[in-house]
Amino acid sequence: MLLVVVVVAAVVVAAVAVAAVVVIIVIAVVAAAVVAVVVVVVVVVVVEVVVVVIVAKVVMVVVVVVVAAAVSVVILLVVVVVAVVVVKLSAVLGT
């Protein structure tokens, strides 16, 4: 009878040990999954920020180029208008 109790106790202890190992493994897997999700979220956020910064800089460069081109066209038009006015005034004044 004592032998049966010892065997049952040993089986119970072994089962508890196996259960403890399984719980530890499950906790480790869950922790690894949480860490992986956090890493992926951080990488996605960093990539989004970098992409937004790059896009913003490209848009800024395009705006500067367009504004510079527009200013150049306006300056050219002013020069042409002034030249036409000077020519017309010269013709009118007979100089």
From TrEMBL:
The chain crosses the membrane at residues 29-54, 61-87. Keywords: Membrane, Transmembrane, Transmembrane helix. This is ABC transmembrane type-1 domain-containing protein.
